């Protein structure tokens, strides 16, 4: 079965190297998606990086380190910078387009069927690409298009007319046209994903969700495995750069990299705490997109294929899960999302 092969490959989480040599960053394991595409299990997250020089330097460092999966979104406001770097690497012959896996997302203010080709066109123009490898619906809820202006969404902008199936049908048309090779969703809950699986002509190939040691999302990960939907973890290190979140929510950001169990396991393997945390997630069969603009950490974050966590180490890290209590991002700051009928985390209301 395709799903069994998909998650068996992820559970192994490394590529057997020629002549027994340790795998390098360029050998990053890929998962075979239900769409037929292959998605690298480690990608570079780019949320909250909009400074030109910072992002360009990070992308150059990532591509040089062997990253071929880059994650962005319309709402990140950095697609044009990513396009600039990718175009340069392609023109210089340093990478081939078919070796790259570029993900972007339909914004929350573009949640009408007619918006799909418009926003995908805008993303492709900024990325300087003919197609993206993955196009995701960024949020299950929606705000009116006019509610967004210059990076801000008005608090009263909620659009309750959201129809996931109608939007998805427009997404399918873009896949058929070859402008989005694979389709998926982000921040959807299990019932929302299941609704698409049962009713869409093309099932979602990927679900991107907040996932880290304190919020391991075990139930929806198991559901996705059973239904051949690959899972991508955003904020896999606990989003240590999101200091603003504490100001909005009053919730203290976790320091996952200083947890005693993580530090102990890292020392045992002569690895960094971040490498252990990422390895734990990848070893569960989950794609990770850690964000960093530090070249050293960018390199470290992809060098997780030359060691394996034991069953007891995995169990020790599994036990750190706090469930919904460990969730960092409730998205209530987006245009009154908690009042939307498709708000996905009703237990938080």
TrEMBL record:
Residues 42-321 form the NADP-dependent oxidoreductase domain. Keywords: NADP, Oxidoreductase, Signal. SUPFAM superfamilies: NAD(P)-linked oxidoreductase. One of its GO terms (molecular function) is oxidoreductase activity. PROSITE patterns: ALDOKETO_REDUCTASE_1 (PS00798), ALDOKETO_REDUCTASE_2 (PS00062), ALDOKETO_REDUCTASE_3 (PS00063). Coiled coil: none annotated. The active site is at 76 (proton donor). This is NADP-dependent oxidoreductase domain-containing protein. It comes from Megalurothrips usitatus.
């Amino acid at each position: 079965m395709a799903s069994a092969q998909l998650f068996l490959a992820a559970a192994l989480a490394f590529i057997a190297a020629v002549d027994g040599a340790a795998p390098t960053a360029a050998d990053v394991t890929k998962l075979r998606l239900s769409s037929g595409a292959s998605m690298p299990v480690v990608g570079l997250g780019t949320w909250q990086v909009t400074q030109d020089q910072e992002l360009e330097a990070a992308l150059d460092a990532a591509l040089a380190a062997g990253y071929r999966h880059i994650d962005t979104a319309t709402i990140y406001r950095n697609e044009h910078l990513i396009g600039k770097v990718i175009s340069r690497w392609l023109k210089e012959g340093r990478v081939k387009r078919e070796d790259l896996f570029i993900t972007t997302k339909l914004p929350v203010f573009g949640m009408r069927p007619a918006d799909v080709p418009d926003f995908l066109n805008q993303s492709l123009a900024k990325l300087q690409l003919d197609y993206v490898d993955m196009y995701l619906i960024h949020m299950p809820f929606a705000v009116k298009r006019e509610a967004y202006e210059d990076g801000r969404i008005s608090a009263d902008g909620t659009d309750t007319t959201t129809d996931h199936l109608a939007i998805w049908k427009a997404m399918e048309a873009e896949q058929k046209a070859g402008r989005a090779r694979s389709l998926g969703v982000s921040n959807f809950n299990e019932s929302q994903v299941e609704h698409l699986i049962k009713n869409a002509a093309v099932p979602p190939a990927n679900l991107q969700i907040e996932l880290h040691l304190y919020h391991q999302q075990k139930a929806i990960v198991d559901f996705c495995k059973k239904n051949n939907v690959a899972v991508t973890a955003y904020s896999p290190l606990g989003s240590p750069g999101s200091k603003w979140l504490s100001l909005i929510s009053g919730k203290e950001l976790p320091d996952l990299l200083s947890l005693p169990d993580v530090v102990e396991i890292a020392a045992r393997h002569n690895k960094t705490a971040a490498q252990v945390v990422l390895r734990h997630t990848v070893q569960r069969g989950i794609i990770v997109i850690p964000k960093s603009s530090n070249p050293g950490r960018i390199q470290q974050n992809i060098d997780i294929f030359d060691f394996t966590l034991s069953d007891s180490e995995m169990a020790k890290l599994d036990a750190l899960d706090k469930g919904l209590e460990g969730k960092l991002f409730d998205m209530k700051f987006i245009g009154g999302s908690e009042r939307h009928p498709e708000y996905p985390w009703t237990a938080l209301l």
